[in-house]
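Explain this fold:

***
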Amino acid sequence: MNDITDAKIIKYQFEVPIKRSAADIWALMVNEIDAWWMNEFRALGEGSKVTLDPRTGGQLIESTADGISLEWYRIQMVSPEQALYLVGYMAPDWGGPTTSMLKLAVEGRNDGGALIVSDALLGNVTEASAKSAEGGWKTLFGDGLKGFAER
């Protein structure tokens, strides 16, 4: 049986203001990711470890003590202390096939800094799945990273 579906592209962007310097936001985002990555976003369950290797070809990986691992994203480009460009894939079991091209940029502001999140989804994408992805990132970066950074 052949199942042919048209691919779609949906892009969105939002900003998360954080009352820390841009350098602090970058350091927390990259070096402390496991501390602020919320449990409800751990695909492998509570107790998994989230790591980020912030260099071209590096990975954003979630893993468990018993050897199960999931590659969330691979780093396409790094502009140190400014932006990470990541590419990730969603398998059909999780609503794909979909490719996510995620940019995480850090900028200074008068009252601290901001994380600017830009995502482009290509593949089996609907308006509902795009809103779900955007809402998830807003929660993870807004409640997770921002909450951790401002405590």
